[in-house]
Amino acid sequence: MHFLFLSRTFESTTMKKEILFCYLFLVGGFLKAQIPDWSTSIAPLFYANCTSCHNPNGIGHFSLLTYNNAILYAPTIRNVVEFRKMPPWPANPEYRHFKDEALLDSLEIIAILAWIDNGLPLGDTSLAPPIPSYAIGGSLLDTIHHTIQIPPYTIPTNARCIIILRFTPDFKIQFM
To answer: Roughly what angle, to the nearest 10 degrees, separates helices 106-117 and 74-82?
Structure first.
């Protein structure tokens, strides 16, 4: 509100730029003092949003359960988080939101990028949350009501595979 008032009051573009610079300098100085660390900021964030797939038994290509694992992949993490490729969520969040959608909000993205850009600080490990455990071949669903066996087959190189499942009209799929 104050910034809008100032932008209307000052006619000079130079003065507007100076005010914006001062504002960003002050905010940037405050944020610099709040550098996220693994133990209190990043581990809880990864455990809540990433490690269900990125664990030794998960479908992610690498584990993010430990600090040592995460720092190995910092450049990759930075890229996929900054460009919102991870967590994978093809639905457009600007159109509609869904229950249990896999999205990082802007503050979470800023925290991850700040952690990486500021040297990947570990922090006080006594404050870190416990590392979650995941069952081998486990499901993220609470209850599995029905499983389907598909006969073995080979997908040709450079081909797309579409599996068509036929169910009775009264069969409803809640999760997949």
So the answer is: 150
Give me 142's structure tokens: 């609470």
pTM listed for this prediction: 0.62
- Cβ-based burial of 67 (10 A; exposed 0-12, middle 13-18, buried ≥19): buried
Burial of 35 (0-12, 13-18, 19+ CB in 10 A): middle
- Rounded to whole angstroms, the Cα distance separating 64 from 56 reads 9
The SS3 of residue 165 is coil
- Separation of alpha carbons 49 and 55, rounded Å: 12
- pLDDT tens figures, 145-167: 777 777 777 777 777 766 667 77
